[in-house]
Amino acid sequence: xxxxxxxxxxxxxxxxxxxxxxxxxxxxxxxxxxxxxxxxxxxxxxxxxxxxxxxxxxxxxxxxxxxxxxxxxxxxxxxxxxxxxxxxxxxxxxxxxxxxxxxxxxxxxxxxxxxxxxxxxxxxxxxxxxxxxxxxxxxxxxxxxxxxxxxxxxxxxxxxxxxxxxxxxxxxxxxxxxxxxxxxxxxxxxxxxxxxxxxxxxxxxxxxxxxxxxxxxxxxxxxxxxxxxxxxxxxxxxxxxxxxxxxxxx
Length: 250
Hints:
Helix content: 55-70%
Shape: elongated
Distance between the termini: 58 Å
Structural class: mainly alpha
Number of strands: 2
Largest sheet: 2 strands, antiparallel
Strand order of the largest sheet: 1-2
Radius of gyration: 24 Å
């Protein structure tokens, strides 16, 4: 059974559960439901995915796709609601949401299945920032510089690299956004890009702290607790992240 067939079977089952006679369900109409809007959403996800892959923004992948294509998701929802009878309005909204999530999940799975790409040109800005942050790691580690001080000095030294990374990411995603229904780069997307840059700094601090722990086994490596081989999940009172743990150490 193909994914499309499974999707149609799910829709038909849901309609029948709401009291719709199976003989009254127009399968051909369901298959063509909001096709233009679906195509717009797929295009938007594709445009954003290209940049996410270029800059290896794996942690921000889902949020960037979701926020960058918000207008396309709304357009799909509106089209589905208009395509179905008023009596099925609530179902139509749920269906539109399921279609958006299905498309988003497909894009995420496609990206995660691909190998990490090698950067070139401007796509290396995050790598160059990371390289700058870690350039003094051996000397700082030999002097046992505290992680918080290492972070402060590295950030100060690499402000130009940080600014360039922020600028390149903002321009790239702003240009991609201009091709979508809503041409303005949203505040939420800008925040995700800022997180990507900040993550580079935090990862560098963790690398530095790990080197200190290697040189001095009495120091904590701040490794997370594992549950069945995976980091444990906590509903309440989660422990500090590795970065937070590292910078708290003298």
